[in-house]
Design brief:
Strand content: 35-45%
Number of helices: 3
Largest sheet: 12 strands, antiparallel, barrel
Strand order of the largest sheet: 1-2-3-4-5-6-7-8-9-10-11-12
Oligomer: single chain
Order of helices and strands: EHEEEEHEEEEEEEH
Distance between the termini: 36 Å
Helix content: 10-25%
Shape: globular
Amino acid sequence: MMPVISMEFCSSSEVVFVVRKRPHVVTGGGFVVTDCSSQNVVFRVEGCGVLGKKDELLLRDGDGDPLLLIRRKGGLVEALSIYRQWRGYSTLEYEKSQKPVFRVKEPNYSCMINPNQIKISIDARAYNNHNQDFEIKGYFPDRACSIMDSNGIVLAMVLEGLVATNDVYNVLVKPGVDQAFVFGVIAVLDYIYNGSTRC
């Protein structure tokens, strides 16, 4: 098992989810995640500065309770860095420690490196006291990418849905992988590539 946010979101079997974009005009954007087999809403992602700030995302569980606050780190340090960094905070811990559970690094496109090379790291406290690195392989806008660990093992895959559209797609999460962590990363990918979470 690989709990990052909570053991509650780790399944003992492979799970396929359906992701549906929400229209900006009605809900402020973002997307809804349902379990393919039960059709129950498992997660909701809110974007478009719903918390009052640009570059902020919120992952909620199926009941609407907040799980993750995701923010892009800004300022001069980011402007000079070769990476732009997103930080995911457990909403339960945010007010206390403000230490991120995970970080997503996207290349700063003014630098001469692969613009699709996106790295993810997990705070050691959240992952059995070991630092763990991941990366995105493939291209999210094509709905053909994977979250892989440093050994090349696939944790989750973003796939085209039965109907070829950017508004609906599938995500397959492997057994034991924290689904809340996976959808926190997907929320960032959606924002990076001008998806439903971005105004």
